[in-house]
Amino acid sequence: MNIFVALLAGIVFGLGLIVSGMADPAKVQGFLDLFGQWDPTLAFVMGGAVLVTASTFRWVLRRDRPLFAAGFKLPGRRDVDARLVAGATLFGIGWGIGGFCPGPAITALATFSPAAFVFVAAMIAGMLLHDLMLRPRASIPVSSAA
Fold first, then answer.
1. DSSP label at 68?
2. pLDDT tens-digit series, residues 5-40
3. In this structure, are residues 71 and 47 in contact, taking their beta carbons and an 8 Å threshold?
4. Residue 138 backbone dihedrals phi, psi, to 5 degrees
């Protein structure tokens, strides 16, 4: 049952991204172009999302657990460090250049947009590179004999 609920939620979310224009890189770049020909329509999409979240988040967390999961999985860290700032900066630069963020890019694959395929491939390559860079390195034992 959980997989069907997740599938339905994903379909509704993806359709919302397409209908709202969030999966259209030209629309996103128009929204980010504050000093050019700014398109403010995505502000209403984001504002609606913030309004729904702000008005229901605390109410939902009063429950013992989600409807279809054993418990809530919320981030525990609240500090801001250099890695977080660097990651957010790279995310913003990629969003501005490509006009996609991860969710809408994956959704845009359904439209067979070549730009979406390039973006998702680059996103996957970046995630793999990140994992390679953070993988613990094997230590080489050093003998104490001289």
1. T
2. 889 999 999 999 889 888 888 888 898 888 988 899
3. no
4. -70, 135
| 87 vs 89: CA distance, rounded Å | 5
Secondary structure (DSSP) of 102-146: HHHHHHHGGGT-HHHHHHHHHHHHHHHHHHHHHSPPPPPP-----
Q: Is the pTM of this model over 0.85?
A: no
- Determine which helix (DSSP H) or strand (DSSP E) holds 7, and give its type and residue range: helix 2-20
Residues 6+ apart with CB under 8 A from 62: none
Helix (H, G, I), strand (E, B) or coil at 62: coil
**Distance (Å, whole) CA 96 – CA 33:** 9
Are the C-beta atoms of residues 120 and 138 closer than 8 Å to each other?
A: no
Domain borders along the chain are 2-134
The residue behind tokens 């969030």 is 22
Taken as a whole, the chain contains a residue count of 146
At a CB cut-off of 8 Å and minimum separation 6, what does 114 contact? Answer: none
| Pairwise CA distance, residues 75 & 99, whole Å | 27
